[in-house]
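Final report, Chapter 2: Outcomes

The project's central promise was a pipeline that accepts a single protein chain and returns its three-dimensional structure in a standardized token representation, suitable for archiving and comparison. That pipeline is now operational. To close this chapter, we reproduce one record exactly as it appears in the project archive, with the input sequence first and the structure output second.
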Amino acid sequence: MSVLQAYSSLSSSSPRATISHTLQLIAGAPPIDPPSCKALIQLIIDDLQAVIIDGSPSRLIRDDAFSALSAVKGLGKIPHGAQVLALVPNLKCLMMLAIKLETAPDASNEALKCVANTLLLSEPARTRLLSQEIDGGNICVDLLQKSATPESTFLSSRILFLCTASSHQSFAFIESIIETKRTHFPGNGTILDVIAFKLDDLIASMKAGTKMSRDAMTDLLKLTFNLLVHYPKLVPSELQSPGIVCSPVDQKVMGDFWNSRLDGILPPLVRAFQTIPLSSPNPLTSPLTHIIHSLITIPVNASSRAPSPPESTTSSPTGSGHDNQSTPKEPKARHIERAISSVISAGRRSFCCSPRSDSPSTADCASRAFELLDMTLTHFLPGDIDPDDSAVRDLCKIDGDTSLDEILCPLVLLITRFCLGDDDAKTRIRQWLVPENLDRTHPLEKRADLLGRCLRLLASVYHSRLKDAMGEMLYAMCDSNASSLAGYFGYGNVAGFLYHKGVVSAPPVSAASGAPPTTASGLPINPITGTVEHPSETVDMTDEEKEHEAEKLFVLFDRLEKTGALPPSQNPYRKAFQEGKMG
């Protein structure tokens, strides 16, 4: 007998054990033919509708709800099953079941799992769920607010994330839930207040190792990202940087516009970025990666902070901070300072500001980002390995079928935004990477530290997006000035990046560029290599010394060619080989 026949043969007078056994058979059955699958789903949904929503007799009783919904969930995981669940009456029934069964959380969650799976498999179902007839979006916001476990938070967040993806109906829904006060929420907050509360709750759950807390935060952050990306494009929003040309809604660049209604989400995002437990050995995993995605949408406004006292030189972020308590005039864009002031309760501060000495629990966003970059590159590029080594790509695939571009580009972009938007963050990040007391006696690009790894990435062939992002980060770190960039890192290391910027020859390095002309001990720095330049005591060299110098030049020209700064036809060593002048 098929499972459809077995279920159809049941009645309200069938033994409870028989009904329970049949539902378990359906839940564990292999895929059945499409017509039987569709018919069986509709029968079970109709029975659940009758007994739980309408209060009418059916094959099932209220205690069967969990097993029946588990059966529906299994049947709905295949496309033709999802087509039945995607019908408006069935979606409405599942949402009503989630509400009616709130006193039985496991059963309520099964109903939400059925909805989430359906939205994943059927895009039209997302629009239908938001329709006025179902109002599933607002129901899920209420369920999110009332969620008492990471699992229920995860399910509500997953449904809302899928509903806010990319349709005109989802845009209208985003605008509505951000602007609608929820009278049953403390303080009459909006969806953003609900999310903020849940983020803080999940930070504590993650620290305690609570099951599904990471998954719940990941999907809550996916929802947050959708809201932060789309809302400033949908409503009149404040242009954050002068000189940006306003464009149509669908062409507005993420992070260039901001609306003050979004301010409340920033403090918990900052707290989460600073405090959630890191995975090891690769810290850039979810939900941290999703926090970074959301932070990238936030404009870092340089005008929002007062000038800082000079920063002492350090070789690492640890301990590099100062107390900046000056209060600037009320800036035009207030979101960044509100976020930090809410976190540390110490006045208006920059998004990337250093921690107060009397607030040891308050981390520094710039320092955290720099630390994450160092930790991640140390994992994927151990020692002085070439980024294009196949072992690096193999290591990336261990964490998933991904690439170094996908893993690191968002974090590098976030650091770049810090450098472009906050002078203090830019100065400190540069000092951490290239401190005044940097050892310049050996090639910078061969160092087995963060500096060496960043410079080796500039010559990468396999990681093209990360190569470009790293170049932009270093460029922003050097005041977006070609002379400064070449002065800090040596023209040979950045020639390829500058060539693609339109700088085809070595820019002059002057005192005005800010780059150090000498080391801390007074030794001159070679502008091409970025290392100490030792003047020759004599022009006479042995054959061995001449060969050594020739090898150094060969390596330099090879690097210039590899980065694209020098066309192969202009490489004197390549020309000599081709003409047979070198053996």
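Archive annotation: Residues 66 and 107 are 4 Å apart (CA to CA).
This record, like all others produced under the grant, will remain available to the consortium after the project formally closes.
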